[in-house]
User: Fold this.
Amino acid sequence: MPGVGERLYLITDGSAKRDLSGFLEKIDAALAGGARLIQLREKALSAKDLLKLAKIIKAKAETFGARLLINDRADIALAAGADGVHITGNGYAPFEARKILGDTALIGVSTHSIVEARRAEEEGADFVTFGPVYFTRLKAAYGEPLGIEKLRETATLVTIPVFALGGITTKRVVEAVSNGASGVAVISAVFGSGDIKKSVEGLLSELDHQTFRRGGKDDPA
Assistant:
């Protein structure tokens, strides 16, 4: 079973183009705090710059035994030697990504409904994010929060891990995990904090406690 660090799915905040050195410092702090599953989501970067950054972060991640996924770009993931790809709702199917990356690749899919989560599983996803569960400004474009009941229902109806996304805070980890989430996916809860390392440690502490209490379907892959 992977360490509790992979119950926390850290999604980057899109700041690499604006402040690369500061961005890399954030990654260093998150890894030092125990983050072991990171999605590189930097849509403002060119393919060339994204590949260069992916290689840098992959090297950092390997030092800590962490895994790196690239948002949507299976080609970049392959070229950078990343561990997998995260597909958004407008992307391609998981089985198509696996043809590019191989059987050992870790493939996640963003979902916003039970139907999408079940389809992602049927098409070969290793795990899904589900949300927004709670209100968050970053996910306001997806409409009203789906709520904790939909999270619980989704986690019951699929066999792959479900990561709760949207409005996650340290205090909400308990509710998410006790309602079926295998882990939580976060952006601002870490990158929007004043102390990234401490924020990661706090989230992991809650996840560790909840995982110990419930056991079960917790592995991304």
Observations:
- The chain has one domain: 4-213.
- Residues 4-213 form a domain with the TIM Barrel fold (CATH 3.20.20.70).
- The two ends are 9 Å apart (CA to CA).
